[in-house]
Amino acid sequence: MFFGNGCQYLLNLITMLILLFHLGWWIPLLLLSTSFPKVYFSFKIQWDIWQTMSRKSPQARKMKYYSSVLLTDTYAKEVRLFGLGSLFKQRYQEAFADKYRAMRKIRGKQAWNLSFWEILSAGGNAIAS
Question: How far apart (Å, rounded) are the C-alpha atoms in residues 93 and 75?
Fold first, then answer.
C-alpha cells in the first residue's frame, strides 16, 4: 500500500514539475528541492517501521497465543483448574509492552521528522506560488 502511494505521489510530482517548468525554470527546482527530502525520509521511516514490525513479530505471535488461551473456550477448563489466568495475562502484557515501546519510539520519530519535512515542503510550495 505504501509503495503504491509513493508511486502515485512521485507521478503527481513529476507531472506538476513538467507543467510548472513553463512558468519559470526555478519553480520546479524549488519544489523538487523541498519535496524530495520529505519523500526520502518518508520511505526511510516506513522501512524502519517495517523492520521494527518484523523484529517484534515473535511478541505479536505470543500475544495472539496468550489471548487465544485466555479468551477461547477450548482452554477455559485448564486455565481455571490450574489458575493460569493471571500468568497468561501478565505474559500478554509483557509482550504488548515490549512491542508497544518499540512502535511508540518509531512512530514518534515518524511524527516529528515528517512534520518538519512537510512544513519545509509547504514553505517551498508557498514561495513558488
Answer: 19
- Give residue-wise pLDDT tens across range 87-106: 999 999 999 999 999 889 88
Cell of 44: 526511510
Q: Is the dihedral of CA 11, 16, 17, 21 positive or negative?
A: positive
DSSP string, 54-118: HHTHHHHHHHHHHHHHHHSTTSHHHHHHHT-HHHHHHHHHHHHHHHHHHHHHHHHHHHHHHHHHH
CB 63 within 8 A of CB 103: no
Q: Label residue 2 by pLDDT band (50, 70, 90).
A: low
- pTM summary value: 0.63
Q: Which of 32-41, 64-73, 83-92 has the lowest mean pLDDT?
A: 32-41
Q: In the chain, how many domains are there?
A: 1
* In the predicted structure, residue 1 carries a pLDDT above the cut 70: no
H or E segment and range at residue 45: helix 26-55
